[in-house]
Structures are given as C-alpha cells and as structure tokens.
Amino acid sequence: MDEIEQVILVDDEGNQIGTAPKSSVHGTDTALHLAFSCHVLDDEGRVLVTRRALHKRTWPGVWTNSFCGHPRPAEPVLNAVKRHADSELGLRLNDIELALPLFRYRATDASGIVENEICPVYIARAENLPQPNPLEVLETQWVHPADLVTALDSAEWAFSPWLVLQARQLDLFVAQRRIQAGAR
To answer: Measured between alpha carbons, how far is residue 109 from residues 59, 137, 155 in Å?
Structure first.
C-alpha cells in the first residue's frame, strides 16, 4: 500500500504545528503549509520554465517556474528540492542557493482551489538536460530572463501566480525589469 503524502502545517511565523495529507490541504480552505520553489538556470544563463500537467489539481496547464514541491515531515527542504528536481524533471542540480527565504503567498485558481504557502525560493544550475515526468510537466522551455520578464508583463494570466510574485522579488528578474524600464 502506498504511503499517503504528508505536508508540514505551519503557523504565521513558519513554525511547524503539525502535518496533514497533501490531498486535504489543497482545497477551498487551504491551511498554511510549507512548500518551496526552484528556478533552474543553464550554462547560458537561461531559466527553465515548465508547463504544469493538465491533470494537476491547481493551475493545470499553466506555465510556471522550473519546479515546486513540499518537503516531507522531517525532511530538510534542500533534500526535497533535490528529490523533486529528479522526480519531476530528471535533473541533477548544483550551486543551489536560497534566494527568497521568507517568500509567502496565497492565491486562488479558477476552480476555487487555494494555495496558501510559506515557500522559500531557490535558484540552482542544471547539470544535465531535463527529462520531464509527464505526470508533472507537460512542456519545458529554456528562456532568457529578459524574455520571461516581457512575457510576464504582457500576459501575467498565462503564468502561475507564485512565478509572477517571485519574479518581482528575485534579483534575476528585477535587474531585467530595470534594464527594460531604462530602455523605454
């Protein structure tokens, strides 16, 4: 019998207050829980964006950052990042750095499902080409940060809300916004 995937419930300060089945925390009244996001770069400085599989419970078919996930109870977040990189994209990562340790968001998708997460954000480099798991990822694309900023600014609705919010805070994208604003 498969083990039921658990997520870590947290209070407003990010302290663990319990666990719950993952399936029970992504609904219309989602408890605050711990997650993470990762933006993967290649040797050319391009960032990997992914399109979520069509059967995903939240934001199906939407373009997003490289990958996201939830650490298991008692699992260090960095270990969860590596585990999800491998299971979702077949990626080995290096130079993993914590870029936004206090990122937090709450968003509701078109079906009424709520994401409510304390979600540290990592940036890493890929050691190999992605091999997407079709249960998680429909498509992948390597893009230059400036091109992603342009896309986010012109069609925010086509992207996950957490990507849009993270791009407003990550140095990788903030610098591109400044350059583009100066060119206008």
So the answer is: 6, 18, 16
The catalytic residue positions are 68, 117
| Angle at alpha carbon of residue 183, lines to 179 and 184, rounded to 5° | 125
State the residue for tokens 């086509």. Answer: 158
User: In a 10 Å sphere around its CB, with 0-12 CB exposed, 13-18 middle and 19+ buried, how is residue 83 labelled?
Assistant: middle
For residue 181, the tally of other CB atoms under 10 A from its CB is: 8
Cβ distance 33 to 9 under 8 Å? yes
- Give the number of other CB atoms < 10 A from CB of residue 68: 23
Cα atoms found within 13 Å of the Cα of residue 35, Cβ hemisphere only = 22
What would the two tokens of residue 43 be?
């040797």
Question: Which residue is associated with the tokens 């206090």?
Answer: 102
> What's the pTM?
0.92
Number of residues in the chain? 184
CA distances, 71 to each of 50, 78, 151, 159 (Å): 20, 9, 30, 23
CA dist., res. 127 & res. 178, Å (int) = 30
Give the mean pLDDT per block of 10 residues along the chain (184 residues): 81 96 88 97 96 93 97 97 98 97 95 95 97 97 95 95 95 67 58
Assign 116 to helix, strand or coil.
strand
Which residue type does 78 have?
L
